[in-house]
Design goal:
Blueprint lengths: L2 H23 L6 H13 L2 E5 L6 H11 E2 L2 E5 L6 H5 E7 L5 E7 L6 E5 L6 H4 L1 H8 L1 E4 L2 E4 L5 E6 L12 H4 L2 E6 L5 H12 L10 E2 H13 L4 H12 L10 H6 E3 L3 H17 L7 H12 L4 E2 L1 H5 L4 H11 L4
Parallel strand pairs: 1-9, 1-10, 2-11, 3-6, 6-9
Antiparallel strand pairs: 4-5, 7-8, 12-13
Helix pairs in contact: 2-12, 10-12, 12-13, 13-15
Length: about 325
């Protein structure tokens, strides 16, 4: 494919993304960075973890995205008594022709294109692990058989960072499966006024599908086909290594407060997300600026603080800001 064809496809992709973004903005007030981050997850083929206090519209945003896509959608409310079979499905005894009875597998909500895992940290580790194979491999093993999930497949999970009683923090292995960890901020005064106007009046906001599955798969393929300069790949590798306290280029905060740095999946997440961001901005190749713009959501859940860092209340984002300042772009 030549540059002219790629540019034409890029223009078409941008127009479709603009339509998708407009549909979401018709329901969601503000949250521009959050919308962009969720779209990056969608196009990069990675899962997203949205963290914020209740009432900030996390669930509404995901529902709105699903409504704007002509794809199947399922919501799972995670609770302490939720079982893996409630997500994956189970075999049930049904009547067969001739009067016999046989076991038939009934698919669970995981067999949807977009899955909302609401308050994921309220479920037990056993149930949380039911998502692990699905998120990593795009398939599930249940009732003795491995079954593929629909494509595209996206898990968007939410969790509340404040109310920790009765919750089960996600293990590092599962956190690492999320492309982004997205912090959802509290709205400012003007946004809060708009939210009140939209939600306490008589008008109802609705969203119609503007993008289907086959087109979305084409867009994902175009994103992965964008060229990446070798210097940019090396820059991503240096940034990732600088999150490890044993690296010679690690800044002071990393050496003092970090127990384990980000995994190689963090580098993959940065590079894929940078590709998507360049597409969103109409450019044919990602830049160092794109990498820097996506570093926080791509790495903040992959860097583990040591006891001293936890005790002193060090924020991982502060550590990563120092990594950005310490590693030159050249």
């Amino acid at each position: 494919m030549n540059a002219a064809d790629t540019k034409a496809q890029l223009v078409d992709l941008q127009q479709r993304l603009d339509g998708l973004t407009s549909a979401i903005r018709g329901v969601i007030v503000g949250q521009e960075e959050i919308i962009r981050s969720v779209l990056i997850c969608l196009l990069a083929g990675g899962h997203g973890l949205l963290e914020g206090v209740p009432g900030l519209g996390k669930t509404l945003l995901i529902r709105t995205l699903a409504g704007a896509l002509d794809l199947s959608f399922a919501r799972v409310q995670f609770t302490p008594d939720l079982m893996p079979a409630d997500i994956l499905g189970t075999s049930v005894l049904v009547d067969a022709p001739g009067g016999a009875r046989q076991l038939q597998y009934q698919q669970g909500p995981i067999f949807s294109h977009i899955v909302l895992a609401d308050e994921i940290n309220r479920a037990t580790p056993k149930t949380q692990s039911a998502l692990l194979e699905a998120m990593a491999e795009g398939q599930v093993t249940a009732a003795g058989h491995t079954r593929p999930l629909p494509s595209p497949f996206l898990v968007l999970a939410t969790q509340n960072p404040l109310e920790m009683e009765g919750t089960y923090p996600l293990p590092e292995a599962q956190l690492d499966r999320f492309l982004f960890k997205i912090h959802v901020p509290f709205p400012d005064e003007d946004e809060l006024v708009q939210i009140l106007d939209r939600t306490t009046g008589s008008a109802e906001s609705a969203v119609r599908p503007v993008l289907d599955g086959p087109r979305l798969l084409q867009m994902k393929a175009l994103v992965r086909a964008l060229p990446v300069a070798p210097t940019l790949t090396r820059y991503v590798a240096r940034l990732l290594r600088a999150t490890h306290p044993t690296d010679p280029h690690a800044p002071e905060l990393v050496r003092r407060y970090v127990r384990f740095g980000a995994s190689p999946r963090g580098a993959q997440a940065m590079l894929l997300a940078a590709r998507v961001l360049s597409v969103l901005q109409g450019r044919l190749a990602p830049s160092a600026g794109d990498v820097r713009a996506v570093l926080l959501p791509a790495l903040r859940h992959r860097v583990l603080l040591n006891f001293e860092g936890e005790a002193e209340g060090i924020r991982v984002d502060t550590v990563l800001d120092q990594v950005l300042a310490a590693i030159p772009q050249g």
